[in-house]
Protein: Cupin type-1 domain-containing protein
Amino acid sequence: MVLVKKYHLPPTALMPNSPNPLLYYPGYFAEQKGLPKTLHQIFDDNGWETQWIYRYGPTQRSHYHATVHECMVVLSGTATIRFGVADLSENMVENTWGTAREAGGIEIKARAGDVFVLPAGTAHKTFDTKPARSFTLLTPGDGHLIPGGDVGAVLEETEQRLEGFTMMGAYPAERRDWNTQRGGEDFGAYQRVWSVPKPALDPVLGHSQEGLFGQWSDYGLSAKL
Structure:
């Protein structure tokens, strides 16, 4: 049986979060050779599209995506991911390790093989990465699409450069126009964020009731942004 952890994150003054829960599958994929290419095939089979592999730096700004659901899989390293709250300062030390952030939220220690499925609007921030490296997009493109006809071959090449804390991101197929918000941009319009259509299948669990197929409601299924 798959271990699925669910976190219901309420909206805040700056972050919409979602009526549907953040889903976390700890250690679902063991760190292994060929994982990026394997993941890409699984995503594709479930109607999701691989769009990036990033190596993360020591910290980043808290943010959310208002127009798309997201799946992140940890490929290497460890880090802390904070979900559900906004940064309240531009000072990266204060908003990461200090008190310059909204109250609430959760923090998860992420490790290789972990899977996160984020409903649209979910605030997230990755920090305390180990081994420490600089923030780098490892795949070609702009982070919204991996260009070229043979994405699997690109991912095989990218795997050779997986050092530090790296994650692979996927989104429902053909959803490449997603945005990145830092908080407050959609205040008064959270309903629109919550109405992003539910994907037909979970990115890794497919039709399983343990994944979003069974854990998320059909809330806003027919709504359009």
Strands lie at 5-7, 22-25, 48-55, 70-76, 78-83, 106-111, 115-118, 124-130, 136-137, 166-172. Helices lie at 35-45, 92-96, 151-159, 190-194, 212-215.
